[in-house]
Amino acid sequence: MIASGNMHKAERTFGAWCMLLALAVCSSAAWAQAGYVHEISGFISIQKDAGKTEEVKVGDMFDANTAFRTGTDGKMTLKFADGQVAAVGADSAVRVGQYRYDPGNPGQSSSTVELTQGEMRFVAGLIGAASSTGVRVIAGNSVISMVPGRADFTVGVKPGTQETGYIVVAFGEISARTPNGQISKIAAGQYAPWQHGRGVPRPLPFTAAPATIQAAVAALWATVLPASTPAAVASSARTAAAVAAPRQAPADAIAGPRLAGYVTAISNSGSLRTVTGGRATPGVGTTFQAGAVFSTGADGNMALKFADGQVVVLGPNSNLAVAQYEFDPGNVKASKSAIDLVNGAMRVVTGYIHTENHDGISISAGASIVDIVNTGPADFTVVVNTKDQEVGVARVTLGELSVHTPYGPIDKIKIDQSQLWGPRRTPTSPIPAATALGVVEAAVMLQLSGVPDSAPVAVAPAARAAAATATANQAQALANTNPDNARLRAAAQGATELANLATQAAAAASESITAKVVATALENLAPTAAGPALAQVAAAPTALPASPIPAAPAVTPGAGGGCIVGTCRGSPQ
């Protein structure tokens, strides 16, 4: 009996140890997997434990010490094990610092989320509901705390030596310690800003917030969030990935109008009228479809790259309509492009459509029709002034042109030649010197500007890469002006890593486009006894040699993120 009792005692002791061990393992697992990526749009990067930076996908799991960065078109929703949710806006950087969640004791759990740049909507989970000290949200140099219970608020911060930030509370009650002083209470419906040199912030009604902040907050509030209930991270991540899979299908498998191209560079003023008639201010990475109309101001320049590799550079005071554009890498011979220069100056570098379907290219300038005579690559500039009676000039760097003008035909313009036309009997008649000088100078300036390469691209990834590169350039420029600011250096490094990832993704996607075009060309060759005549396959349009003459002077950063026409830093190489 004594032996039996000792045995039962030993079994109970062993069972207790097993239970403790199981709890420890479960607790450790819960701490290791902080949450998962519930939703994304655009390009997002992730860095775990200061390791390699990778592209984010829906369903990716993360733990403590993980940093995320969104691109200029990126948005992201994170869900944590305790139900906590963070919706991150575009061009933002967030780090999950500490995260420990014990389902059996949420009051002793902890979470730290740091917003180093941008905007984030934060919804508390069980940790925040149970403890006022369990959750810390850091925004720049400010620390945000919440009263235990349900909480939903948005925070934004612009880092720097003169940091600015704000908090908007949708539900609950928040306090914040900012560089300007302590805000003891921010209630639901209130907005509290802080700015260097403005004194201790005080809460105001949200309606008093600037329109830009109201718009940013409204965009985050419009995001559909998952329920703030606890989640089994692994299974929830698998479900999110499965739901997102159909939405992440290849672009060529999605019905609807295809993207024609994107803006690779812009300086100063410019505008875009979309195919639906809406107005927008284009920037580096802005995509467009057939039907788009671009305009530049008196000091504006803009470079557009099309899916087949065609490039168009617009000079000041120019208006360009993309009348038609259809590019099918699997059937280039049936692809078409039609562009109309209503007024101003444009430089055109041809792409795959011209190489494979010479008759598929249509180019007009004012009332004149420009025909590319040669079948190989072409690079030329056309300028028209249609204010009174049309005056124009065509200047050829590569290839050969003919122009049908309102005053008669120009049969041939060869390499390094220019030809004027104006209101006389023939295009070769004299044109007023001042007018002629103006159009010629416009043509020369565009011909001296650099252009991106003329290889085909997958438009959406290439546009994201261009935007990410422009953002990285801006972040690096800001860091260079404040070399002792660690936050700015970190932001620049993160933006550069994101740009590198986006560029790699764009290059891989664009290579697949080129491979498809070449494969189709091989299939269409007539077989011979020796097999396909590989030498006859149209080679991909190569990048044009760089001009030995320096590019146009650098311009001040505009809506496009500071890319310079002539260097096209926003374009993936």
Polypeptide structure, described:
- The chain is α+β, with helices and mostly antiparallel strands and 573 residues long.
- It folds into three domains: 1-32; 34-247, Jelly Rolls, CATH 2.60.120.1440; 258-524 and 537-573, Jelly Rolls (Sandwich).
- The protein contains eight helices and 33 strands.
- It has a 17-stranded mixed sheet that branches.
- Helix 7 runs antiparallel to helix 8.
CATH architecture of the largest domain: Sandwich
Q: Which word captures the global form?
A: elongated
Q: What structural category characterises the helix and strand content? A: alpha+beta
What is the CA-CA span between the terminal residues?
83 Å
User: Strand percentage, roughly?
Assistant: 25-35%
Number of individual domains: 3
Q: Which stretches are poorly predicted, pLDDT < 50 over at least 5 residues?
A: 1-31, 249-256, 528-573
Question: Tally of extended strands?
Answer: 33
CATH topology of the largest domain: Jelly Rolls
State mean pLDDT (0 to 100 scale): 80
Count of alpha/pi helices: 8
Spell out the blueprint of helices and strands.
Elements: H1 2-32, E1 35-41, E2 44-48, E3 53-55, E4 61-62, E5 66-70, E6 75-80, E7 85-88, E8 93-100, E9 110-123, H2 126-130, E10 135-139, E11 142-146, E12 152-158, E13 164-171, E14 173-178, E15 181-187, E16 190-195, E17 204-205, H3 211-221, H4 233-244, E18 261-267, E19 270-273, E20 279-280, E21 287-288, E22 293-296, E23 301-306, E24 311-314, E25 319-326, E26 336-349, H5 352-356, E27 361-365, E28 368-372, E29 379-385, E30 391-398, E31 401-405, E32 408-413, E33 418-421, H6 433-448, H7 459-481, H8 486-524
Parallel strand pairs: 9-10, 26-27
Antiparallel strand pairs: 1-4, 1-6, 2-3, 2-5, 5-8, 6-7, 7-9, 8-9, 9-12, 10-11, 11-14, 12-13, 13-16, 14-15, 16-17, 18-21, 18-23, 19-20, 19-22, 22-25, 23-24, 24-26, 25-26, 26-29, 27-28, 28-31, 29-30, 30-33, 31-32
Helix pairs in contact: 7-8
